[in-house]
Amino acid sequence: MAIIPQMSLFSWTDLDELGDLDRLRLVIEYLPDEKLMKTLESQRKNGRNDYPIRAVWNTILAGVVFEHKSTESLRRELKRNAQLRYMCGLEGSSVPPAYVYSRFMKKLFDHEETINLMFESLVAELYETLPDFGRSLAIDSKTIPSFANGKK
């Protein structure tokens, strides 16, 4: 029996070869979040700046990239990893307490439309780079894992 190897449609091998901090650096550099950051910073006005908005945002991105299941898991990692703190912008600051994250997340929910526009702009950039992106797709369905029981 001949087995024909097939490439995975959702392959992360190129990114898996990068270190964790390199993957986070890519996200921080290429995510078009400037409008959101300026909006949040203008809303803060002259409020306390113990934990800069950009630094807290970057730590949340780190939590997503490193697949932390909870804020406390992310905070433990930040306390342990000085390079991560530095990359996120917390060089001189201590790790934000949990209440900073809960308040920040509430503010993010108020700006859901802006966050959606960030991702739409990334997709638009992908369409510019790959003009045929999304036009057609054909694959062997055996490569997509399925959990259906089937019709009885």
Automatic annotation (TrEMBL):
Cited InterPro entries: Transposase_InsH_N
Domain of life: Bacteria
Domain Transposase InsH N-terminal: 22-106
Protein name: Transposase
Organism of derivation: Ureibacillus suwonensis
